[in-house]
Amino acid sequence: MSALLELRNVSKIYKSGFFSPKVTNALDDFSLVIDQAKPTITAVVGESGSGKSTLGSLLMGFIEPTLGDVFYMGKNMKALTGPERWQFRQDVQAIFQDPFAAYNPFYTVDHVLTVPIRKFGLASNREEAREKMGDALRRVGLRPEEILGRYPHQLSGGQRQRIIVARAMLLKPKLIVADEPVSMVDASLRATILESIYTLHKEMGVSVLYITHDLTTAYHVSNEIIVLYKGSVMEGGEVASVVKTPHHPYTRLLIDSIPWPDVSLQWGKEPVIKDDGSSPTTSLGCKFASRCPHVMAKCRDAGPPLFAVGAQQASACYLGESSPALQRSELHKVLASA
Amino acid sequence: MTAAVPSREGPAPVLRVEDLCVDYFTDAGRLRACDQVSFELGPGQRLGLVGESGSGKSTMALALMRMIKPPGKIAGRVFVGDDELTSMDDNAIRSARMRLIGMVPQAAMSALNPVIRIRAQIADVLQVHEPAMPDAQVKARIAEVLEAVELRPEVANLYPHELSGGMKQRVCIAIAVALRPKVIIADEPTSALDVIVQRQVMDTIGRLQREMNIAVILIGHDMGLMAQFVDRLSVMYAGKLAEIGPTGELFARPTHPYTHMLISSLPTLGKKGVFRGIPGITPSLLSLPSGCYFRTRCPYAMPICSEVTPAQQAHGTDHRSSCHLSNVEGGLTGRIAAEAASVPDARMGGFS
């Protein structure tokens, strides 16, 4: 099996409070396979609290799942040896949301580039290190002479975020987890940053997990998409079919809420039903039930499985009941054909 | 204090800004963050203000409320109704803020005091402006404004950390409208929220604008949100007003290349992989280029652009912009059409 990383029926449960713990199911029975042989860009979209960042942290090994297992190169993450873990750290790189917090303001921006070179022994001498840094910066569309030696506050948010992309590029990773990489950057600069991530994927064959709440950029950048809501997969599949012909009521609501830069399109035709907290929070019923305009009695009793509503599209909604059902762990089959 | 309102058709403007300038005097020299901005806003109108980071839009919003601190200095005049904010003394301006002109701050997450209940934070603005208000009335007003922003009255007893991002933003809106101002300035009110919550918050602002007839200035950098929400749109670049006009007209026939590029930098559901950012970055306000400030990033720059600063020109009623292309035959529309005809995919690409 050539899976770089595999999540198998993973759940992450957070508890807070001592006497009457409040249980939050951040991620619920989630399975995903990231193939090594065929690099893809997978978008994970959802609102705040949908578990998308939890998923990112699990893939980067920052947290361990409560239930289920994460496998790296076919080996359980809990059982990795020292050198294997070191390899994992190099193979999986992160790009975070905040281009301001990623830097130590006391160091020049060179620091974020020299540390990985030193730690992973990527260069044998100073000249080679400098060469590599310059090369990585040029590849993300920056001029090294304008960047190196500067302090973070002297650069714009867009430049800082592209340096982080360059840093990830230096390590020649196999997977990049980009957690909301453009949400804090001006709309007019988003395209340039996404372009550099895309170049990385295209030229170096890196898989990208693009975590975002912005369906429009997800549509343009990625090959496949997973829509999360309260820790469960609502819909997944090839990006164009999901975005253009959304099946799940939640995906439809998301797409309807995008403010398009076109005055002739009307914003928000579908009414937003407020969450009254009556949706089941366990894995028994559908979590979107209390906000769903098409809710049926059985939605609250038992959560729908995934239904293969298209060749490359699966939706966890009883509206697709006539289509063949899939196990939750079979999501990658729909994705892999994308 | 009162100034003669110029005779014009329709209702008198509720906000009038004349040649507003904000200068910062720094060690590196004088820096003009807001450069001779003039516009009017009718009662209950929705005006959008877009521009990239560093274009001076937040500075202008602060200057409207006279909240620029030294070494910043404000010049020009701002009127709300007949009251001139720029000539008031310190006590008068303190009472005018929130009463005449309210503000929804950018970061609702950090705008609320984390150790004080919501009730006290709303009561604060009421009691400062109307010290004689009896407690029972304060209590009633808090419930009323919370209801106006679609929050349950029990929210008053909570602390900010117990609220979601959308709820915190609603509390900030409640504080801004508590004294029923004539104008509210919303500075990127939804930039940290996801699309569904964004839509709900904007629905609330829109409803308050209609019901209480409050004029709204919406600041942001998302042209999509602007297209869906505002009646009139103004575009700022390097402290200057590049273009202002009715939203529909600006989208259909932009007359400033920056407006055109802002619109086309956004992804749509059209051809996959076709959307492109604006190359380059905003110039430093300490070393601005000669002539037109946008010429260093403008694909249509001509020799005249580096020599002469373009003057503002009217295009029909209520639509003006400052670009030399307006004097060229065909204007910007002609250039865009010619470009599209000669090299169909010149500005496309990106992710294909």
Question: How would you describe what is shown here?
Answer:
Chain A is α/β, with parallel strands linked by helices. Chain A has a domain at 223-338: 3-Layer(aba) Sandwich (Rossmann fold), CATH 3.40.50. Chain A is built from 12 helices and 13 strands. Chain A has a 9-stranded mixed β-sheet, with helices on both faces. Chain A has a 4-stranded antiparallel β-sheet with strand order 2-1-4-5, covered by helices on one side. The longest helix of chain A has 18 residues, at 187-204. Chain A is globular, with a radius of gyration of 21 Å. Chain A starts with a strand and ends with a helix. The model of chain A has no long low-confidence stretch (mean pLDDT 86). Chain B is an alpha/beta fold. Chain B has a domain at 254-342. Chain B is built from 11 helices and 12 strands. In chain B, a hairpin with a 2-residue loop joins β1 and β2 (29-41). In chain B, α6 (165-177) packs parallel to α7. At the A-B interface, α6, α7, α8 and α9 of A face α7, α8, α9 and α10 of B.
Short description:
The complex is a heterodimer of chains A (338) and B (352). In chain A, 33% of the residues lie in helices and 23% in strands.
